[in-house]
Design goal:
This protein is 87% helix and 0% strand. The chain is mostly helical. It has one domain. Helix 2 (36-62) packs antiparallel against helix 3. The longest helix has 32 residues, at 155-186. The radius of gyration is 23 Å and the shape is extended.
């Protein structure tokens, strides 16, 4: 019993941080949904810096040595990542436009594949949800494509916002369930 107390306190602290992170995800998600154009600017900057960090990582990988071909390919990868990151940071709207077009194509293809899968599994009970998901994905892909490039201002920011919101809600539910379990275990 003496060792149980520190474990319970650590679990409470962990679930507290987990719940706090969930609330932050929810707030960020709501912000991105309400202000998708602002959110997409932040996403572009984040993407640019991640590409630059990826380039630095590839350069550092060259220090491990290896064959001349491996080192050459790592250096080329490093240069490509850094140039891509700098380009995204200096031309964020063009980068977001390109990503939005790619997103529209991917969502459309996923919709087509879901509908094809539905027709292969239509005798299965939950396959109707697959058809519904496919139709919604098709419509969303077409909607983004038809309004491209003006859809760039809202599509990625809104979709990232919805993802952050759902992630936050899921984490909040898990964190609160963890709190209830701790309370039941100590009662």
């Amino acid at each position: 019993m003496a060792t149980e107390r520190p474990v319970v306190e650590r679990a409470r602290r962990f679930t507290g941080w987990y719940i706090l992170a969930a609330v932050l995800f929810i707030l960020l998600g709501l912000f991105a949904i309400i202000e998708p154009a602002t959110a997409v600017g932040g996403i572009a900057r984040l993407l640019g810096w991640l590409l630059i960090l990826g380039g630095v990582a590839h350069f550092i990988a060259t220090l491990r040595g290896g064959s001349a071909q491996r080192v050459f390919l790592q250096i080329l990868s490093a240069i490509a990542f850094v140039l891509g990151g700098v380009y995204v940071l200096t031309h964020p709207l063009l980068a977001i436009d390109t990503l939005t077009a790619l997103l529209a194509i991917v969502i459309f293809v996923v919709g087509v594949l879901d509908i094809v899968t539905y027709f292969r599994l239509r005798r299965e009970y939950p396959s109707g949800w697959l058809l519904l998901n496919g139709i919604v994905a098709l419509l969303l892909g077409v909607l983004i494509w038809v309004h491209w490039p003006s859809s760039s201002a809202w599509a990625i920011g809104t979709l990232v916002g919805v993802n952050l919101l759902l992630t936050g809600i899921t984490r909040l539910i898990f964190g609160l369930a963890g709190r209830r379990l701790i309370k039941q275990a100590t009662a």
